[in-house]
Design brief:
six-stranded mixed beta sheet, two-stranded antiparallel sheet, 8 strands, 63% helix
């Protein structure tokens, strides 16, 4: 069954009035650490797209997003994913988001990936701890059977010399725990040089294979009904969090001994510094414990949580819509008041002009009657009136320009409000469609005696396929 809907802001497919998510389309996941160039790569493929591109090391992709473009009459959907070193989110949250999208689209839409592109900065002089952790979790998420559907692409070649980049590239390929084992298992290495043709060469390499893959994480959560922490990727990530927790527990214990010594020496500055370190270490421990707990979740619970989050997001969306309407009404009222004041000022200026013209006519009449003594006074009056007229004309022009600007601002507010209404209507339509699918799925499962309790409302699939496709 096709999944259709209006292309949202993040469905960067200019000229496509309807985006169709069909199992027959091309789906390619883009993965890698923060700053590897995922958003930039997508923008090159979509050409006119301008997704959020990170500056520095701040993560711009904080949830799974879908970007769509058309090539050779085929819809190609690029799935942008956050890295496991996301700026503002825990690794467990990131894995939950990816598990949710991959599971819900595989189970309910029968969508399979054409391939996965894993991006890595060639500018990195070594494989950092975060990059290595990301890579290990990525391998567990894919599984060996999917390795032939993986492209390992290096980015940012314009920032290094060819010689330096080639050495680092060879190190990635020759080191088993980096890319070496994945290449032996069928993965392909590419250099992404940062332009459209380079990006499309990588995309078409996967498209022209004419095959799809089911990731290990999808098999485990959907086919085998495993909870997230019992999947290979979940266990890998949980192991990392346990190591982190134990590391900071050791550091915290050490600072307690240092604190006793600092107190004994009455070293106020050292006491303050140790207290800050203890606070930081305790937060790291708390985050790791929360991450371990968050991974203990089934697919049904994951869907329910996303459904609840979707309702919360919709409430926030409705509040934004109301605020937008209120802002439009306010500007409209301000414009009406402005026009009233302008009309009143015009009437007053018109009366003043009529009075000045009457004075000028009277002065002209006196000159015509031979009163030459008043000629100089008349000339001065004429010049004053001309100057006043010029000032009045300039003021009138400014009023007209201001009125035009205000009208444009109000029109822009109305367009924004209408766009929000349209987005709200699209979401409602999606919800209705997905609700009907939910009922069909529940009935089918009940008839099979499965009783798996897949209570998924329309908001769940909407969140999966269009996460980020409607910008709030």
């Amino acid at each position: 069954m096709a999944f259709t809907g209006k292309g949202g802001i993040n469905d960067y497919a200019r000229g496509l009035e309807n985006i169709t998510y069909s199992p027959d389309d091309i789906y390619i996941a883009i993965m890698g650490v923060t700053g590897a160039g995922k958003s930039t790569f997508i923008s090159k493929c979509c050409r006119k797209a301008e997704p959020g591109i990170g500056r520095g090391m701040k993560s711009e992709t904080q949830e799974v997003q879908v970007f769509t473009f058309r090539h050779n009459k085929k819809d190609i959907h690029l799935i942008d994913t956050p890295g496991f070193d996301d700026t503002y989110r825990t690794d467990s949250d990131v894995l939950k988001d990816m598990a949710y999208w991959l599971s819900i689209t595989y189970e309910n839409k029968k969508i399979k990936l054409t391939g996965i592109i894993y991006l890595h900065r060639i500018t990195d002089t070594r494989m950092s701890g975060n990059a290595y952790k990301n890579l290990r979790t990525f391998r567990k998420m894919c599984g060996k059977p999917s390795m032939s559907s993986v492209v390992l692409a290096t980015t940012m070649w314009d920032e290094v010399s060819i010689d330096a980049g080639s050495i680092r590239e060879a190190d990635l390929k020759d080191t088993a725990e980096f890319w070496g084992d994945m290449v032996k298992e069928g993965s392909t290495m590419y250099r992404h040089t940062g332009d459209y043709h380079s990006a499309m060469n990588i995309i078409l390499h996967l498209v022209n294979r004419h095959s799809t893959t089911v990731l290990e994480l999808q098999k485990e959560m959907v086919d085998q009904r495993k909870p997230l922490d019992d999947t290979d990727a979940g266990r890998e990530l949980e192991g990392e969090m346990i190591k982190q927790r134990q590391l900071f527990e050791h550091k915290l214990l050490k600072t307690r001994q240092e604190m006793d010594e600092a107190i004994a020496r009455k070293d106020k500055d050292l006491i303050e510094q140790i207290a800050k370190d203890q606070e930081e270490f305790q937060k790291k421990i708390d985050d790791a414990q929360k991450g371990e707990k968050d991974l203990r979740i089934s697919m049904e619970k994951l869907i329910a949580d996303k459904e609840a989050q979707h309702r919360k997001d919709m409430e926030a969306f409705d509040r934004k819509l109301k605020d937008q309407e209120a802002q439009t009404r306010k500007k409209d009222d301000e414009f009406k008041d402005f026009m009233k004041r302008t009309e009143l000022e015009r009437e007053q200026e018109s009366k003043k002009r009529a009075a000045r013209e009457a004075e000028l006519d009277a002065a002209k009449e006196q000159v015509e009657q031979g009163d030459l003594e008043k000629l100089a006074v008349l000339q001065a009056a004429i010049e004053a009136l001309q100057e006043q007229k010029q000032t009045a004309d300039e003021r009138e022009a400014r009023l007209r320009q201001e009125a035009y600007n205000r009208e444009q601002a109000i029109e822009q507010e109305r367009v924004s409000t209408m766009a929000l209404y349209n987005q709200r209507a699209q979401i409602a339509a999606y919800q209705q469609s997905m609700f009907q699918q939910e009922q069909q799925m529940v009935q089918a499962m009940q008839s099979m005696g499965g009783g798996m309790g897949m209570g998924m409302a329309g908001g769940a699939v909407l969140g999966a396929l269009t996460a980020g496709c409607i910008v709030m």
